[in-house]
Amino acid sequence: MPDPLPEGEGPEPEPKGPLRRCIVTRESLPKEAMIRFVIGPGREIVPDLAGRLPGRGMWLSARADVLERALSRGAFPRAARGQVHLPSDLRARIETGLRSRLRDQLGLARRAGQAVCGFQQAREWLQAGRAAVLVEASDGSPSERARLAGRRDVPLVVVLTAEELGAVFGRDHAVHVAVARGAIAVKLVQEAGRLAAVSGIASGAGT
């Protein structure tokens, strides 16, 4: 649980509404394109990837360069109006957490019958118009990926490895996953976009 801040310290109260202001760029962006941080035990900066931890939040644009600027230019202690502890592996914690969230979303889709894996099954869903998102292994074959997607206007998520995708489906590895339309597909694209931007992956979520 985040520690209470000393009286008179802390970030500005979070505004109401769908937009949040980045403490580095000062841009106001949708929460889905940002990462929230809170002050945890020992005044450590904690990434709140779900945006639900108690306490006033500090928001950053979900971009690798913005995170580096925040760390190098003292944006966190300035926003917190006091000293804070910055974990040396903060970026790794964010990336690991976002990967976990993606796997969790895929697991939800699988259990709900909203996701299938394998080239043939994914192609059948695409041909039937059932697939809203293709999740492709980042270490898979680009040519095979292109052959499956073809000219279809379907978002591609390419941020998890074949081993990570396989673990979701109880396999050693999986390369092609199709996800049906719905809230889970929307969340997958959003989370993949955050992970790609923070980790600097060239291919994240897109068409």
Automatic annotation (TrEMBL):
Q: Where is the Ribosomal protein eL8/eL30/eS12/Gadd45 domain?
A: 102-179
Q: Which residue intervals define the domain YlxR in the entry?
A: 20-95
Recorded hits in Pfam families, A to Z, give: Ribosomal_L7Ae (PF01248), YlxR (PF04296)
**What InterPro entries does the entry give?**
Ribosomal_eL30-like_sf, Ribosomal_eL8/eL30/eS12/Gad45, YlxR, YlxR-like_sf, YlxR_dom
Q: Which PANTHER family match?
A: BLL0784 PROTEIN, YLXR DOMAIN-CONTAINING PROTEIN
Q: What is this protein called?
A: RNA-binding protein
